[in-house]
Amino acid sequence: MPGRPYARRGARAGASGCWGSPWPRPSRRPPRSGGIAWWQHSEADTAREQVHEANAGAEALAGVLAAPDATISTARLADGATAGVVTSRAKGEAAFIASGLPRLSGAKVYELWYEEGGAYRAAGLLPGAGGELAHVLEGPLDGATAVGITVEPAGGSRQPTTTPLGVIGLPA
Description:
The structure is a single chain. The chain has one helix at residues 35-65; strands at 71-76, 82-88, 93-101, 108-116, 119-126, 131-136, 146-153, 166-169. A four-stranded antiparallel β-sheet has the order 1-2-3-6, covered by helices on one side. It has a four-stranded antiparallel β-sheet with strand order 5-4-7-8, with no helix packed on it. β4 and β5 (119-126) form a beta hairpin. It is an alpha+beta fold. The protein contains one helix and eight strands; from the N terminus they run αββββββββ. It starts with 34 loop residues before the first helix and ends with a strand.
């Protein structure tokens, strides 16, 4: 058919959009019940929340790192990763930073612990995604003398259930 190089044999204009187009005409009606619009709005809300949480975490981390009395203690963990704890006794806060953590299989997470006098108290969970992670520890630093990291079931544990991958001593 001259003038219509893409026309299929027997195709009519309008049957499937344009002459010979395999694509249907776009609908001029809005999605039923606003389903797509609702989904897009929900996804945008989720993204905004994630950005807000990331910004808050970055600000908290920057606060510990920039503290005038900030000190860093480092160690190599049993799995070969490198970890450090930045502490600010004046602020009563600490941050854990690690590089090279292996990805965990199954429903496992990394859990951080404050150690004080042989007793452990939970200080936060890290995802089992591995790689490079940074986290401001939860709860007050108080008299903690070390920070440990273990592998625990998703959701964490009340006390460590595995041998620590490492325990990083903290300055007084």
